[in-house]
Design the sequence.
């Protein structure tokens, strides 16, 4: 199987879906001739033309409004928000319109749109180019949220998102765009939205993560394996709907739980995972449920040194595993 980067996997998914379905189009800031700020759509404008790759104004609200209207007219828009930090002007369109349309119309209207969002720190982007937004949007019924951590899942989940009858937000860990590589199958495939992935089997402790943190958690697990700790890494990869069975089954096997995300601690997504464990897996625990996250500060610092302090990494994850195991 060929090995590619995360960004190449996303580009392949969009290329294949554009070729498969003439209703698919991409809209966003600089997605056309420039190929996007991260070059995710590079080469697609030349292949499919200006009616399929549409450069939008610098107005995220309008990107979402165009996407929702087009989706209700039986098109399949892929809407790119250039950075997660810029999504807030479009919050009303996503939360009040796109995610609720199927319910409010009693199933008469679907909104088959994809919202691609590069998120997270690690690129020295500072306060307005490094935010994690998953906790805000995971509270919204009617919206699905996926976060790939491998090229295989990035391609397969994005293709599934394009084909889904209602809105799917694809959160893409931008630090991993070119840092994460992996194999993908030849030919057509999709990855179902919903089920978590066991990234590494283990018996001593369960580590729950997604996106870049799932990638780091797998590295940390290999480190502590050399010290006699057999850590299981559960890549959640779908945040909404959450695979609660996978979480409980893993805790049932190991008895210990560490939850990792780079967003701030208070009201972060990890609290929901902890609540699932407390409610459905409490009897299996033989230790406290721990969270390793970013600190409660307004944003990821610009300074690389401070940024590294803010974000969990393989070393800090390994240290948290050791601490919970009593090493």
Sequence:
């Amino acid at each position: 199987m060929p090995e590619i980067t995360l960004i190449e996997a996303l580009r392949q998914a969009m290329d294949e879906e554009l070729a498969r379905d003439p209703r698919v189009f991409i809209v966003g800031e600089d997605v056309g001739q420039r190929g996007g700020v991260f070059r995710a759509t590079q080469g697609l404008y030349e292949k499919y033309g200006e009616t399929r790759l549409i450069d939008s104004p610098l107005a995220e609200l309008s990107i979402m409004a165009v996407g929702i209207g087009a989706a209700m007219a039986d098109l399949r828009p892929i809407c790119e928000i250039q950075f997660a930090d810029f999504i807030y002007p479009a919050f009303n369109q996503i939360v009040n319109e796109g995610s609720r349309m199927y319910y409010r119309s009693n199933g008469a209207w679907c909104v088959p749109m994809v919202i691609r969002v590069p998120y997270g720190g690690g690129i020295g982007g500072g306060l307005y180019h490094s935010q994690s937004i998953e906790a805000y949007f995971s509270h919204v019924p009617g919206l699905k949220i996926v976060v790939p951590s491998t090229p295989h899942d990035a391609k397969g989940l994005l293709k599934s998102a394009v084909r889904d009858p209602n809105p799917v937000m694809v959160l893409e860990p931008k630090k991993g765009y070119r840092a994460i590589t992996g194999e993908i199958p030849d030919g057509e495939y999709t990855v179902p939205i919903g089920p978590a992935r066991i990234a590494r089997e283990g018996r001593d402790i369960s580590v729950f993560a997604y996106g870049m943190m799932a990638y780091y958690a797998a590295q940390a697990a290999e480190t502590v394996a050399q010290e006699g700790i057999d850590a299981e890494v559960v890549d959640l990869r779908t945040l909404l709907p959450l695979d609660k069975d996978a979480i409980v089954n893993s805790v049932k096997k190991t008895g210990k739980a560490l939850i990792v995300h780079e967003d701030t601690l208070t009201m972060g997504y990890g609290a929901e995972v902890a609540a699932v464990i407390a409610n459905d897996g409490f009897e299996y625990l033989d230790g406290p449920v721990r969270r390793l996250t970013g600190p409660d500060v307004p944003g990821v610092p610009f300074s690389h040194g401070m940024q590294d302090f803010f974000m969990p990494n393989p070393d800090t994850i390994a240290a948290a595993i050791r601490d919970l195991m009593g090493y």
